[in-house]
Specification:
- By secondary structure, the protein is mainly alpha-helical.
- The chain has one domain.
- It is built from five helices and two strands, in the order αααααββ.
- It has helices spanning about 1-25, 35-45, 50-65, 75-85, 90-105; strands at about 125-130, 135.
- The chain has a two-stranded antiparallel ribbon with strand order 1-2.
- Helix 1 (about 1-25) packs antiparallel against helix 3 and helix 4 (about 75-85) runs antiparallel to helix 5 (about 90-105).
- The mean pLDDT is about 80.
């Protein structure tokens, strides 16, 4: 299982680094997005220069994956392709499966995200003494 984790982490890291760098260097030709919400969304990202922020975060996330430091989540990629650009869905599914596999393998590091919130006790609260006065919380 350790080898599968390293392979998944490396593949996902390479995908993030390559496609993140492509936002800046344009070494992979990208076809124009199809008509509809995907084109509008990508146009808004490009016009606001937010696409460069996304590219930089992809590069940083990919480098962190390749070095084995952290495991970013890639489910937002799947949502984009399901809702706006279904032509890229096969690659989005592969990326999401790799991210979910790594999330499962490193689940102990994400336990705090899904931990139950503490429940307020039904017992009466005690007063807090501060200086000369008692404050009831």
């Amino acid at each position: 299982m350790k080898i599968a984790t390293i392979i998944a982490r490396s593949l996902l890291g390479l995908i993030f680094v390559v496609f993140g760098l492509n936002m800046f260097l344009h070494f992979i030709p990208t076809p124009p997005p199809p008509e509809g919400p995907a084109r509008d969304f990508m146009t808004a990202l490009f016009m606001s220069h937010y696409l460069y922020v996304i590219g930089a975060l992809q590069v940083v996330g990919g480098i962190l994956l390749l070095t084995g430091r952290w495991v970013p989540l890639g489910l937002n990629i799947l949502c984009f392709h399901v809702l706006m650009a279904p032509a890229g869905l096969p690659m989005a599914i592969v990326v999401s499966l790799l991210a979910l596999f790594l999330l499962w393998r490193h689940r102990e590091h994400f336990a705090g995200l899904v931990k139950n919130a503490p429940v307020l006790s039904d017992s009466p609260r005690q007063g807090i003494t501060t200086g000369n006065a008692t404050v009831n919380s």
